[in-house]
Amino acid sequence: xxxxxxxxxxxxxxxxxxxxxxxxxxxxxxxxxxxxxxxxxxxxxxxxxxxxxxxxxxxxxxxxxxxxxxxxxxxxxxxxxxxxxxxxxxxxxxxxxxxxxxxxxxxxxxxxxxxxxxxxxxxxxxxxxxxxxxxxxxxxxxxxxxxxxxxxx
Length: 153
Known about the structure:
alpha/beta, 6 helices, globular
């Protein structure tokens, strides 16, 4: 499967470290991989306003950092504001149409899946439009597209 043919159009990346080139967060490597594959990106360092979200119905995919403005600790969090904001954002995206959402995080994907399930946004027994992966698993030549391809199959 040629991933480049599948991802035609603009993608959206939302990550609070998107403009921080000094810390060289893993998102920098992921973005470089996307740009090297000629995928045009809209980059946001926070969840955009509702008026902008309404225009996301034609984007190829959305890449969302689960831990916006939170220092990763390796553990999961209770109902903190970033989780509530992410849940609301994903719900709004669902209202605009079908858009695949890739959630990349430093946290264990199972904790994220549990929060999504609690809010009716994920069902382990069905195919989901949300792909959740640790950022560490996506760093390296070709890993990003390889993991997405596995998920799609």
